[in-house]
Amino acid sequence: MSTTTFSTRLAACRPVLRRLALTLALVGGGLASQPAQAQKGAVGAHDPSTIVKDGDKYWTFTTGQGITSLYSTDLVNWTAGPRPVFRNNIYPSWIDTAVPGFQGNFWAPECIFMNGKYYLYYSCSTFGSKVSAIGLAINATLDPNSPNYNWVDQGPVITTNNNSIVNAIDPAVFRDTNGDVWFTYGSFFGGLRLTQLDAATGKIKDQNNQVAVANADPEAACLTKNGNYYYLFINRGACCRGVNSTYYIVVGRSTSPTGPFLDKQGVSLNNGGGSAVLSVAGRYNGPGHAGLLTEGGATYFSHHFYDGDDNGAPKLGLAKLTWEGEWPVVSRDWLADGRYEVARGGTALVWDAAGCTTPAGTVGEPITQATRTGLDCQKWQFTALGNGDYKITNASGLAATVAGCASTGGAALQLGAYSFISCKQFHIDRASDGRLVFSSLNGGRVIDVPGGSTTAGQALALADYNGGLGQRWTVAGTTLAAAGATKLSGVTIFPVPAPAGHFAVDLGRQPEVGTTEVEVFNLLGQSVYRRQFAARQTRLMVEATLKTGSYVVQVRREGGIFTQKVSVF
Under 8 Å CB-to-CB from 555, ≥6 apart: which residues? Predict the structure, then answer.
């Protein structure tokens, strides 16, 4: 098949896939009817806009019929917005002229607060063409219960047709430190363009003054500034295919907001460049549509992903963005490996192996909240397993465990011998106030002080998330342990589930030096397969011949370790 034929077919199917993703979101919805859990991912979030705050609520707008939304009061638990922006499929009439055949399914909105109002940019398109438009609506508030709530449409910002060199979708807006407002838009269909907006109207200053900032099938731009550089995050790969999505996020930087944006190797985003910052890892498939929110001293990197543990449903993810050597680093690990006291929010009580009957604790001993003593039984080693998941052990080496491996509310927390079972692993989210929320990987319920008790000796247990201080924790009295092995990035395991334990490990762009060792463990922590591969092999074929069940695959190279849970059928 020729390159031209392939590109044409891909262009024709991309919008269909977006609509399929929306359907998956709606099928997997009903967020409000589910037990409140920590932010394992809010269902129904595809192409999330940059998170904005109105009063005590955070909002993000998403691809959907009439433009859908999610809101949160703490960046941990998210709820579906009560109504779309354009209700009952009644949207601005100019769209039917600009985009004939449009049916109300808006893509990839963007929102920014300026001039005392909320500016919401949205895109509309047609199947298999560049007949597209980006519009703008303005509202004084995002609270649907406010008497001032009213979206006032401002008409088109830009339109394209089949003769255009670019495609008017995926808007992104960035306000510079000097007040300039920059607008990035476009897609795989012609690349990404950047132009300046009139800060007063939110419309493009000069339609003829646009620059190409990314090519080679890019999508979903996000521009920001740090120090002396501007950074442009974009997506490459294929979205909207659930667990088979190959979307990943890369970045380039420039001393000018108009580029050129170069990656770490000096390759321009206009020439296929880009340094990867977030790609497929564990259950997080196809991360896309980056947005940045700085809150409580941290920068949240919002994105969507397709959940491999939930049939590929599109969800909202919040990772952490930091800076190393003038380059951004994105991680879902909010807590560095180390030895900590864990204090209950709003009190001086800390995690304790009940009664400190031995210096370290014994198997089956409850984990409680207690007055700080400084003994080893109140110190906990956090070891990152990747993607925000942790092993938590005390001085004895015994691990925090949910009694009976239960997932129900009220299940007690106790000490036990560690294995790869999900009831001995916990995911950490960071709330907007900087405190941490720990949720069991077995079911998603959070570690809680029952009844919000402030009594020393109260045992900890699982509960549905309610946002109370009895479910938010701080790390105190930190003594960092020796740094663990660096985590390999860009490694992919497929297919998952793996038939009979036969799967491939793609090392991505790992340097072709040193051997690679792949080891498979069962959920008791026993090694059931181990093999070394030659240095220059970048795609490793594993034939472990395993029984049906869940396993942990560990990939080890001189440069670090990659770990992922894999189901076998």
Answer: 488, 491, 505, 507, 516, 517, 518, 561, 562, 563
Distance CA 367, CA 400 (A): 8
Catalytic residue list contains 56: no
Superfamily (CATH) of domain 11-331: Glycosyl hydrolase domain; family 43 (2.115.10.20)
d(CA 493, CA 488): 13
338-479 fold? Trefoil (Acidic Fibroblast Growth Factor, subunit A) (2.80.10)
Which of 219, 365, 389, 429 is catalytic? The answer is 219
Distances (CA, A) of 256 to 178, 197, 219, 233, 308: 13, 16, 20, 15, 39
Higher-confidence position of 357 and 254: 254
Chain centroid to CA 536: how far?
Answer: 32
CA distance linking residue 326 with residue 244, whole number of Å: 33
pLDDT in tens, 385-429: 889 999 999 887 899 999 999 999 999 999 999 988 899 999 999
Distance CA 357, CA 495 (A): 48
- Cα-only R_g, the chain: 24
Is 219 assigned a catalytic role? yes
CA 69 to chain CA centroid, nearest Å: 16
- Among left, alpha and beta (phi > 0; psi -120 to 50; other), residue 513 is beta
Task: Give me the amino acid identity at 424.
Answer: K
Contacts of 34 (CB under 8 A, 6+ apart): none
Q: Which CA distances in Å does 253 have to 58, 192, 344?
A: 28, 15, 41
What class has domain 492-568? Answer: mainly beta
Q: What is the pLDDT of residues 139-161, one digit of tens each?
A: 999 999 999 999 999 999 999 99
